[in-house]
Design a protein that fits this description.
34% of the residues lie in helices and 18% in strands. By secondary structure, the protein is of the alpha+beta class. It has one domain (13-241): Sandwich (Jelly Rolls), CATH 2.60.120.620. Bound molecules: 2-oxoglutaric acid (AKG) and fe (ii) ion.
């Protein structure tokens, strides 16, 4: 068993791995965000924290914040988790319901360390990720409070996976309309270090809420593939959805035939 996996998950992974995958997928489909509480081993979380301390000056070396990506993270515990057999397999098993497959070349870890004035660039920068699946592994989070604690806000599953350029632009433009953002249901979550979170990055509008400049917030995002990365590679994908909630398939099948 990989050293980053907390003891309390060993038995489930050994005896009911399929059930674990199903649970995550159902939670993402139904709520937009799945969570495995205390998934990261406490010793490993301490290792991640030490790595954040080491990497913070690297991220701010130019005087402006630079998210750490790709080779910036080579030989760090963030790489170890992202490219572990377990995590790659888990991502593929979750995405299998959509007829999606990702390989190591489609996987990109990003470490976002937010602190001080220069860390404010990420705040309220609402967006869709390019990815099919995003796993968030928070390392350092401000204590939950009424404001300025950098909550993660998500408008879950507001669009399907699609390789259509015009639909992509349409959704981006719609999402910029503040009134629509108020009408469409969203959730704000205080990420908890040690937990592992999952959402469909391409399908869910999201971002970080206000953050106090004297708080530190470090979150590692593991990004898995995406419709336009597949298209660039010449892969036209027909996104099946065994994962579609029953209420939608029922609605579709009761449409009047014409
Ligand atoms: O850490 C967060 O609140 C989300 C960051 C994010 O969505 C991203 O970097 O793409
Ligand atoms: Fe994102």
């Amino acid at each position: 068993m990989q050293r980053f996996i907390n003891d309390c998950y060993h038995e489930e992974i050994r005896n009911d791995y399929a059930g674990l995958v199903r649970r995550i997928r159902t939670q993402i489909d139904e709520t937009g965000l799945a969570v495995l509480d205390d998934f990261i081993h406490p010793d490993f979380l301490a290792t991640l924290r030490a790595a954040v301390d080491q990497l913070t000056p690297v991220s701010y070396a130019s005087g402006k914040r630079k998210p750490l990506v790709g080779t910036d993270l080579k030989d760090t515990p963030f790489y170890e988790v992202t490219f572990s057999d377990f995590v790659i397999q888990l991502a593929n098993d979750i995405l299998d319901a959509f007829n999606i497959h990702v390989e190591a070349a489609d996987i990109h870890p990003v470490l976002g360390i937010l602190v001080g004035e220069q860390g404010q660039d990420a705040v309220k920068g609402w967006h869709f990720d390019a990815t099919y699946l995003t796993m968030a592994m928070p390392i350092v989070m401000p204590p939950p409070s009424s404001g300025g604690d950098g909550k993660f806000r998500i408008w879950p599953n507001v669009r399907p996976f699609s390789q259509s350029g015009w639909k992509n632009r349409l959704y981006w433009n719609l999402a910029k309309i503040a009134l629509l953002r108020r009408i469409v249901k969203s959730r704000a979550i205080n990420f908890v270090p040690g937990n592992l979170y999952f959402f469909y990055g391409f399908r869910s509008y999201h971002g970080t809420e206000e953050l106090d400049t004297n708080q530190v917030r470090a979150n590692c995002l593991m990004n898995f593939g995406g419709p336009f990365f597949d298209l660039q590679k010449g892969n036209v994908v027909r996104y099946t959805s065994k994962a579609t909630p029953a209420k939608f398939s029922r609605a579709a099948s009761t449409q009047p035939q014409s």
